């Protein structure tokens, strides 16, 4: 498959669309012109893009949960509760795992079992099976904009149904929903399939309906160096812009060291704007999202609230446009609606206390310079590998280990780069492998790791990585030697 980062032609797009719409019977419910009218009849207060743009202007940090259950009425009740009792500024619809794998038959069984047992037998909302009108009943029973959150390598039909169903934001991307989510899906496949998603978003945009797109920032959520996740987010934002996307939220998963996390988020938003401008995508609104701690959570709910407050502080001090909120049930699984609302109110309190403060320090400026230098080195190498074509470059970069996501399930990921924390808990490159850092940045990372080794009286080694992965379950950030 010969991938190029070029806006899909109408022939190409509508050619693919025919087969996409046949993948499940609800595809027949999609009528583009009618869907545009439906969106235009919605109050502006339900537009995700607009609410994010206003928050950016007002330098406010909005709070958003994850949430999704099998049946429509229960999902409406859940989201209304999170809107009213959780004070959510933005709402999700988290899609179930069967739908994410295009296994709609099994999602159908899950719906029937949920009706039978009166319990959600799916770990999210099966939007394809519920169809356009099922989705619309969600949107029509809420006042708050709603985003589709999932992890779907081939999300084309899901997008068609959710957009026609009134959702106004959509998470994911051809790299960020492949490498961390799939074992054996070639990158060519998902980058091409997500060009369809972004082209559809562009077609809605060109018809006057702005739909926000959000690459999935945290990736594996385990010791991912900030420059690596930033590079992926920037690449996906640019691939989306080529297809006509005009409103994009770039994301980052909290790693643990406060200065590094604030620096990473600020650099992410600024660099995304710079790269979009540099490559001729002038009129894209860029916002940012901080994902609260994506690692293991304490079972004890009081300790879980400490982790949630910690992530809220990072979002507020980084002036993130929004923050994705965890719950005190994170260690157990899908949260109850009460626990989900508690996580939201905890977050809102922490953010409002820090709303008038901003982190400023020389350490922050140094960390921003480090992350910016590393991120640009990775992104520019991708352009070089693609001889100017970013889609081709990203595919070659994954093959070459230039884009290398730690602990990823994908067999196409090199898995050679090794991260570890430094003495202050910031995530550094222990072994850069083929990540193309310039000499002085390699030396910086090495110096930080050597400093930790000296302080811990041990050699820098893979044992540090193991200790860091297990540290959290021992209530620590940096994995100390036994
Ligand atoms: C990036 C995805 C992992 C996070 O996504 C949460 N998550 C998954 N599915 C649901 C759901 N149906 N409702 C509320 N949260 C959910 C997990 O807890 C975890 O934090």
Description:
- The chain is an alpha/beta fold and 482 residues long.
- The chain starts with 9 loop residues before the first helix and ends in an 11-residue tail after the last helix.
- Helix 7 runs parallel beside helix 8 (156-164).
- The chain has helices spanning 10-21, 32-40, 48-57, 72-84, 97-100, 104-117, 127-140, 156-164, 187-206, 226-242, 258-278, 301-317, 337-354, 362-385, 390-400, 439-455, 462-471; strands at residues 62-64, 91-94, 146-149, 169-171, 212-214, 247-253, 285-291, 322-324, 418-421, 427-431.
- The longest helix is centred in the C-terminal third of the chain and has 24 residues, at 362-385.
- The mean pLDDT is 97.
- Bound molecules: ligand 8ZB.
- The ligand CCC[C@H]1O[C@@H](n2cnc3c(N)ncnc32)[C@H](O)[C@@H]1O binds next to loops.
- The ligand CCC[C@H]1O[C@@H](n2cnc3c(N)ncnc32)[C@H](O)[C@@H]1O binds at residues 66-68, 94, 123-124, 326, 330, 334-335.
- Its EC number is 5.4.99.1.
- Adenosylcob(III)alamin binds at residues 68, 123, 180, 297, 326, 330.
């Amino acid at each position: 498959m010969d991938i190029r980062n070029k806006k899909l032609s109408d022939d190409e797009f509508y050619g693919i669309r025919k087969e996409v719409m046949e993948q499940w019977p609800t595809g027949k419910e999609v009528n583009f012109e009618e869907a545009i009218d439906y969106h235009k009849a919605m109050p502006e207060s339900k537009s995700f893009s607009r609410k994010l743009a206003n928050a950016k202007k007002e330098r406010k940090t909005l709070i958003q949960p994850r949430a999704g259950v099998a049946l429509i009425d229960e999902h409406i009740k859940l989201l209304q509760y999170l809107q009213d009792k959780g004070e959510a500024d933005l709402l999700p619809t988290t899609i179930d795992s069967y739908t994410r794998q295009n296994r709609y038959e099994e999602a159908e069984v899950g719906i029937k079992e949920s009706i039978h047992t009166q319990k959600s037998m799916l770990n999210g909302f099966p939007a394809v099976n519920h169809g356009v009108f099922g989705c619309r009943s969600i949107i029509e029973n809420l006042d708050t904009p709603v985003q589709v959150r999932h992890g779907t390598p081939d999300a084309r039909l899901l997008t068609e149904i959710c957009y026609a169903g009134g959702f106004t934001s959509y998470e994911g991307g051809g790299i960020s929903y492949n490498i961390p989510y799939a074992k054996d899906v070639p990158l060519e496949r998902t980058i091409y399939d997500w060009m369809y998603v972004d082209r559809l978003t562009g077609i809605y945009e060109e018809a006057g309906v702005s739909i926000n797109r959000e690459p999935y920032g945290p990736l594996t959520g385990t010791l991912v160096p900030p420059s690596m996740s930033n590079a992926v987010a920037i690449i996906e934002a640019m691939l989306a812009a080529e297809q006509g996307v005009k409103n994009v939220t770039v994301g980052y998963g909290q790693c643990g060291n406060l200065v590094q996390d604030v620096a990473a988020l600020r650099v992410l938003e600024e660099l995304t704007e710079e790269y979009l401008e540099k490559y001729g995508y002038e009129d894209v609104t860029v916002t940012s999202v901080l994902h609260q701690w994506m690692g293991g959570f304490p079972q004890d709910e009081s300790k879980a609230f400490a982790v949630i407050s910690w992530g809220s502080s990072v979002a507020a001090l980084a002036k993130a446009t929004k923050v994705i909120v965890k719950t005190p049930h994170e260690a157990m699984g899908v949260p109850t609606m009460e626990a989900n609302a508690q996580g939201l109110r905890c977050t809102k309190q922490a953010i409002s206390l820090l709303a008038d403060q901003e982190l400023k320090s020389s350490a922050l400026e140094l960390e921003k310079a480090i992350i910016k230098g590393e991120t640009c080195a990775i992104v520019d190498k991708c352009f070089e590998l693609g001889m100017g074509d970013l889609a081709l470059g990203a595919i070659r970069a994954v093959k070459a280990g230039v884009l290398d996501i730690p602990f990823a399930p994908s067999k196409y990921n090199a898995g050679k780069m090794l991260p570890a924390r430094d003495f202050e808990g910031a995530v550094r490159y222990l072994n850069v492998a083929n990540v193309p850092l310039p000499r002085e940045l390699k030396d910086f990372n090495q110096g930080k790791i050597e400093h930790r080794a000296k302080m811990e009286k041990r050699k820098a080694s893979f044992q540090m990585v193991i200790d860091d992965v297990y540290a959290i379950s021992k209530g620590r950030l940096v994995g100390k030697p036994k």
